[in-house]
Every structure is written in structure tokens, then in C-alpha cells.
């Protein structure tokens, strides 16, 4: 079923390390010719190098998982007959290996499979998730690279991604509050491990409900590491091209400042608000001056509404109305406060993911969000308007930074209108 290439030549050199943390720098060379991305000397070269496109299937990747033959994956998926997901990257199919293990096979779109960007994301995914293991990170079983064919083989998560359970249509089962918090805590644990459990800090760069997978029994796993960046122990941040998904982007993507693990924290805060409300943050409905929609049943830009309601100390209305009161104001308030702390404009003011886990579990006191550090969030929600009633008490800092924030908001609006075009550069 799984056969090594006849030209297999493996050279493994494991970096010396003074810790017991897993290292992502096992080097294995597979193929005939010089490899296209070389990650040994630069952990980020798989994404930022000037690779040339070719049809060669030669790969030089840290921590190489099992290499599958394309024919074997065709058999495993019954000729890709059961599609369980799709996106800009391609399609995902359910498969069964000869040992009866269920897997999910991601088939990169043939039209873009040979592009430099797709190759870099393909290699980064294997390099990052193929060398680390955690209960809240999806396991990469293997990959296939034959000519222009690019496929990734993951463990199968039978409930699919979080967005399916969270944003289900009419008649769909409703996630109860306790299960929502278990999902939030599981995802936070996975990110915490990426940020502090490995030799190199791993910044996911694309935290969103679609990249959080669920399985029966309460299993929660972070997936899709194609956009991830690695930081060396000496780095506190790095500059890189914009990446991620609009609606979850931290302000630093737009300010020409370094990204760090706190960039993931911001995205997680946006996801947590969606878990609380049970809908996308940028939903329909006109926002009234009080922050709620005219119908009273929905909100406009939910993060801004959550901030306004927090400042009033009113939390019950922020919960998913489908819960029909099966959650207390105290429980909702705790989650809202944690989410808003994650959305602080200055990265250093955001909590670590380990702190987020502790706050959500109630093992430490929940920090109070700082309204003066959430001006960017408020401005994005309200456009360019800063209301007069905010200026005397809460708006002093916002007034001092008004031009800066309006410029940042303008850039974010342009990004939204461009439909994510910048993220493809």
C-alpha cells in the first residue's frame, strides 16, 4: 500500500537540543534531483523563498511523514467518491486505508498545484504538523507528491469543522454551552502548544472555525498549517506577507509591524465571540445606536456590540438565542471578557493562550478588558464614526490616535472589498 520511492535517499540529522520539546528539524531528502524548498537552514524558507516552479516530485522536508502512492489514495478514497469538504485549496475526501483506518484526504486543486505558493504551503504543512503531536492538533498521516499531484492525508474527524456545528441552518442541532466551552478550551490548548510547547514558536496565521475540527467524544483539533510561520528562540516576531482570512486578521497585519504568537490570540478572540453568539461576527441586520439590530433578534458587527454590552455589564443577550436561556450571565460574561482581552490592539496586552485556557476553565481570575486598548475594534465596527458621547470619558486615547486608527480601518475595509486578494500575494 505504501511504497518508498526507488530513488529514496534519506539523510537524517537531528539538531541538538537542551530540552525535551519536539524538534521540527529532522531532515529527510527524498528524490533524484536537488530539492525545491530547503527548510534546514531557514524554518521559514518554505514560505518566503524564491522557489522556481517545476513538475518534479523531489522534496526536502523536515520530519517527513509517510509517503503514499497516488494509486493507493485513489483506492483508499474509492476514486475520490465521498467529498466531505472543499475550499480555495481544493477538496477533501473520506478514505479508508488497508488497515481499516479512516482518513481525510486533501487533494490540492490541479490548476494551482504546481504554483510556487501552493508548493510552499504544502511543504510547510508537512514540516509543521508532521513533526509535532498533541491531542488538540490534527495528525498528519502522510502525503503524496507525484508530478503535479499534491495530496495530504489526515486522521478523520467525523463531525467536520466547527463552522458546520456552530452555524448550522434551521433544524440543525444546537451546541450546548458546556460543549462550546470545551471546544474553546480544546482549541486554546492546541494553540498554546504551538506557541510554547515546541522548540520553535509556531504561529498558525489562520485561526478560524473552519480550521477547528471536531470528533465524537469531544475531541477538538486545530488543522490546516499551510500558512504557519516558525519563530526561532531568539525571535519575538517577524515580518511576512499578509496571510489569513478576513474577519480574523489582527491589526498588526495592516501596520507593518512584526507578527508573533499574539497574532493568533487576536484571531482566537474573534472565533470565541462566534462560539458565544453562534453566528459569524459580521452578520446581517442594521445596527442601531444602542448596538442591537432593529429586530432585536440579531446584531450587526458583533465584536463591537459585545464591547458595548460589556461596558454596561449586560451579558445575557450576547449568548446564542437558540440556547433559550440555558446559560447564565456569569458564564457568558467570563467568555466575553476573555474574548475582548484577546482583541486588544497592542499585541503585548493580549493574554497568552495558556492564560486563556486558565481563564476559561476558571482556575485563575478573568482579566478585565481595557476599553482604551480596543479602539481599533470599535472603529472597524462603526466605520469612521467616533460618536461625541464617547469623547469626554472613554475616547481620550481614541482621539489622540484618531488619524492612525482611521487609516487602519480604511486599509481593513479595502482588504475586505478586495475579497482577500492581498492574502494571495
Characterise this structure.
- It is a single chain.
- The chain has helices at residues 45-48, 70-76, 116-129, 162-166, 177-196, 261-277, 302-312, 329-342, 353-361, 375-382, 396-400, 402-417; strands spanning 27-30, 59-62, 66-67, 83-87, 90-96, 102-108, 140-146, 149-155, 160-161, 201-203, 212-215, 219-222, 229-231.
- Helix 5 (177-196) runs antiparallel to helix 9 (353-361), helix 6 packs antiparallel against helix 8 (329-342) and helix 7 (302-312) crosses helix 10 (375-382).
- It is an alpha+beta fold and 425 residues long.
- This is Protein kinase domain-containing protein.
- ATP binds at residue 106.
- Pfam families: Pkinase (PF00069).
Range of helix content: 25-40%
Characterize the main sheet: 6 strands, mixed
Q: How would you state the average pLDDT, rounded?
A: 77
Radius of gyration: 22 Å
Integer tally of domains: 2
Task: Please report the first level of CATH classification, the CATH class of the largest domain.
Answer: Mainly Alpha
At the fold tier of CATH, the topology name of the largest domain is: Transferase(Phosphotransferase), domain 1
Return the CATH architecture of the largest domain: Orthogonal Bundle
Helix/sheet category: alpha+beta
Query: How many beta-strand elements?
Result: 13
N-C termini distance: 38 Å
The succession of helices and strands, N to C, reads EHEEHEEEHEEEHHEEEEHHHHHHH
Strand order of the largest sheet: 3-7-8-6-5-4
- In the predicted model, the low-confidence regions spanning at least 5 consecutive residues are 2-20, 23-54, 284-297, 384-392, 419-425
CATH superfamily of the largest domain: Transferase(Phosphotransferase) domain 1
Keywords: ATP-binding, Kinase, Lectin, Nucleotide-binding, Serine/threonine-protein kinase, Signal, Transferase
Family: Belongs to the protein kinase superfamily.
Domain Protein kinase: 78-364
Pfam family, one: Pkinase
Amino acid at each position: 500500500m505504501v511504497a518508498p520511492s526507488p530513488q529514496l535517499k534519506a539523510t537524517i540529522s537531528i539538531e541538538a537540543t537542551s530540552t525535551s520539546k519536539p524538534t521540527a528539524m529532522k531532515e529527510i531528502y527524498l528524490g533524484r534531483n536537488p530539492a525545491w524548498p530547503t527548510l534546514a537552514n531557514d524554518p521559514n524558507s518554505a514560505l518566503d523563498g524564491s522557489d522556481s516552479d517545476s513538475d518534479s516530485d523531489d522534496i526536502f522536508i523536515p520530519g517527513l511523514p509517510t509517503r503514499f502512492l497516488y494509486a493507493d489514495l485513489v483506492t483508499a478514497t474509492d476514486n475520490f467518491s465521498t467529498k466531505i469538504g472543499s475550499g480555495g485549496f481544493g477538496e477533501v475526501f473520506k478514505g479508508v486505508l488497508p488497515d481499516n483506518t479512516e482518513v481525510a484526504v486533501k487533494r490540492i486543486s490541479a490548476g494551482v498545484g504546481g504554483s510556487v505558493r501552493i508548493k510552499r504551503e504544502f511543504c510547510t504543512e508537512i514540516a509543521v504538523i508532521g513533526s509535532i503531536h498533541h491531542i488538540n492538533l490534527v495528525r498528519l498521516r502522510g502525503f503524496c507528491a507525484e508530478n503535479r499531484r499534491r495530496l495530504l492525508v489526515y486522521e478523520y474527524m467525523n463531525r467536520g469543522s466547527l463552522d458546520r456545528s456552530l452555524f448550522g441552518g434551521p433544524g440543525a442541532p444546537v451546541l450546548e454551552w458546556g460543549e462550546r466551552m470545551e471546544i474553546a478550551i480544546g482549541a486554546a490548548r492546541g494553540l498554546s502548544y504551538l506557541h510554547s510547547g515546541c522548540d520553535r514558536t509556531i504561529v498558525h496565521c489562520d485561526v478560524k472555525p473552519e480550521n477547528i475540527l471536531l470528533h465524537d467524544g469531544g475531541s477538538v483539533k486545530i488543522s490546516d498549517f499551510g500558512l504557519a510561520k516558525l519563530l526561532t528562540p531568539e525571535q519575538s516576531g517577524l515580518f511576512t506577507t499578509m496571510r489569513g482570512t478576513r474577519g480574523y486578521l489582527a491589526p498588526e497585519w495592516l501596520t507593518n509591524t512584526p507578527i508573533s504568537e499574539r497574532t493568533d490570540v487576536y484571531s482566537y478572540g474573534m472565533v470565541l465571540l462566534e462560539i458565544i453568539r453562534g453566528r459569524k461576527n459580521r452578520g446581517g441586520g442594521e445596527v442601531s445606536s444602542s448596538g442591537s439590530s432593529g429586530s432585536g433578534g440579531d446584531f450587526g458587527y458583533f465584536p463591537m456590540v459585545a464591547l458595548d454590552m460589556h461596558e454596561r455589564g449586560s451579558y445575557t443577550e450576547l449568548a446564542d438565542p437558540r440556547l433559550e436561556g440555558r446559560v447564565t450571565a456569569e458564564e457568558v460574561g467570563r467568555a466575553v471578557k476573555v474574548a475582548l482581552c484577546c482583541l486588544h490592539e497592542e499585541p503585548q496586552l493580549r493574554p497568552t493562550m495558556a492564560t486563556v485556557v486558565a481563564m476559561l476553565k476558571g482556575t485563575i481570575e478573568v482579566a478585565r478588558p481595557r476599553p482604551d486598548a480596543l479602539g481599533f475594534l470599535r472603529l472597524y465596527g462603526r466605520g469612521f464614526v467616533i460618536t461625541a458621547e464617547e469623547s469626554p470619558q472613554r475616547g481620550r486615547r481614541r482621539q489622540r490616535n484618531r488619524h492612525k486608527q482611521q487609516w487602519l480601518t480604511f486599509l481593513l475595509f479595502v482588504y475586505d472589498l478586495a475579497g482577500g486578494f492581498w492574502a494571495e500575494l
